[in-house]
């Protein structure tokens, strides 16, 4: 399926080409034909599926197909979304897709002065993207009329409900013309949302898009805060206790990889290193031995690991945290393949905590911390040398390591659930 096959206007097709979109995403392929027929739509989908284009493209197309922008512009399409960030994003999408048309759009949200927003409205807009509070506020000040709305989108309905916007939405519904096309999007469909959708939608079609599980969601992850000198002890401990199957260990440097293999050898754990300084033959042999189960661990650097393709890899251990967050996702993606779940644990020294922060930002998840292990990092271990450097105020009580207590761990687990939802 191509955008052209959806029968879209040339000016929209050109704009989509500029965006680099080659073909419609599933939600677009399913929703656009329904919407172009004028039907209402219930979309069960979340951000990241291409949902915004799924509703903005057919709205633009219909605005163009209809009488086109009028001399005196009235707001003919209204998109209501819960947060300022989403509102800005949606407005940017409209701007991008409408760039070769003379359709005008603008965005309004709370928390900032209304002057600029009122000015933009005064210039005349066809499409308005808004958060509920500021929208009602400007309606009550008579800067906005909803009398000409032909297309109404309620975006992220479940989040609206969570954020307590339900009364605002009900107020809005009373102000909308009865004759309109309505689009209702929600990531989840609890009873209250089904009820709300019934109040908004007329004759509708439902499109459901299940989000793909990302690597970061598929693989169980954990962080061990540990001192540099205890990393090898912790590695040996894990390989001897919980991670007895094929384990891929990541080291930041080639030298580090060799040292890990030596240390594991001393502990009686069979392993081999693969990195750029090893010959192709040595790498192949190590990989072969690992696949055949002759080695428990394969110790690799990021670059050397790229060529490794092993389906049944139970565990990944990041002996060092990568300073490039994307490498973390590639590394942990080595386990949990072919639908199997995997476990990836990472050792984190005090100096590596900024890397951890970046990684968590990228994967939008707080990785749970394991603190009940024999080599648990204690802040006073780190405080000693630095205090000495500062002049030996070693009597000062070290601050406890935040994020290491059970309470904090539970909190972070809950947070990670929230950010994933
Ligand atoms: P959304 O779910 O609307 O937040 O979109 C997620 C991301 O996918 C945005 O960065 C869009 O620019 C992008 N996107 C939307 N539709 C397509 C498409 N057909 N092809 C490629 N990227 C797309």
Strand content: 5-15%
SSE-based structural type = alpha/beta
- List the bound ligands: adenosine monophosphate
Name the overall outline.
elongated
End-to-end separation: 30 Å
Summed up, the helix count is 18
Widest sheet: strand ordering: 3-4-2-5-6-1-7
Low-pLDDT runs: 386-421
Q: Briefly, what is this?
A:
With 421 residues, the chain is an alpha/beta fold. The protein has helices at 10-19, 26-36, 51-65, 84-97, 115-123, 132-140, 157-162, 166-175, 191-200, 215-218, 231-240, 254-266, 280-291, 302-305, 325-332, 353-363, 379-389, 406-420; strands at residues 40-44, 77-80, 105-108, 127-130, 151-154, 181-186, 204-208, 219-225, 247-250, 271-274, 297-300, 315-318, 342-348. The protein is elongated.
How would you describe the overall organization of this protein?
There is one protein chain. The protein is α/β, with parallel strands linked by helices. 43% of the residues lie in helices and 15% in strands. The chain contains 18 helices and 13 strands. The chain has helices at 10-19, 26-36, 51-65, 84-97, 115-123, 132-140, 157-162, 166-175, 191-200, 215-218, 231-240, 254-266, 280-291, 302-305, 325-332, 353-363, 379-389, 406-420; strands at residues 40-44, 77-80, 105-108, 127-130, 151-154, 181-186, 204-208, 219-225, 247-250, 271-274, 297-300, 315-318, 342-348. Strands 3-4-2-5-6-1-7 form a seven-stranded parallel β-sheet, sandwiched between helices. A six-stranded parallel β-sheet has the order 8-13-12-9-11-10, sandwiched between helices. Helix 2 (26-36) runs parallel beside helix 3, helix 3 (51-65) crosses helix 4 and helix 15 (325-332) packs across helix 16. The longest helix has 15 residues, at 51-65. The radius of gyration is 28 Å and the shape is elongated. The two termini are 30 Å apart. Bound molecules: adenosine monophosphate (AMP). The site of adenosine monophosphate has 11 residues, from helix 3.
